[in-house]
Amino acid sequence: MTRTPARHRATLPAAHRAARSRGFTLVELMVVLFILGIAGAAVVMTAPADNSLDDQADAFAAGLVRAHEEAILGTRAIEVTVTDQGYGFTRQHFGDWQPLRDRPFGNRLWDDGIRPQLPRGRDQVSFRFDPTGAAVPASLTLVRDRASVDVRVDAAGKVRMDARR
After folding, report:
1. Fold for domain 52-164?
2. How far apart are CA 92 and CA 160, in angstroms?
């Protein structure tokens, strides 16, 4: 790279000097990107990340869908029992109900602050799926602070969720 001697700089055309002074250098662009990255990280770190209610409702609804599928594939009725502590899965085996402990089934506890709204005077709610795929219609509302999510199962065994904020 050759440098223009000082005596020749003054003789460069004005248009050429203006073209060289326009734009940003790579270092300037990198500094700006670095500052934007730091600012973005600060925003992400201070933003509330409490998706616990949505996560719990999604996991519960997914468990209901798996129970529905298991009832059909296993040709045995499956029941999901919900209490204020959590929920668990049982399978009908002849006249008895036996707990399902294998993955992805098994007992699950609600996260801190999550509470199900159980019917008045009852300490549990059950969702039951028969081997044909039909279900006993049931619903449950999960609550955290002022937010809530309704999880419903219709007679065809279809699981639906509706969030209320």
Report:
1. minor pseudopilin epsh fold (3.55.40)
2. 24
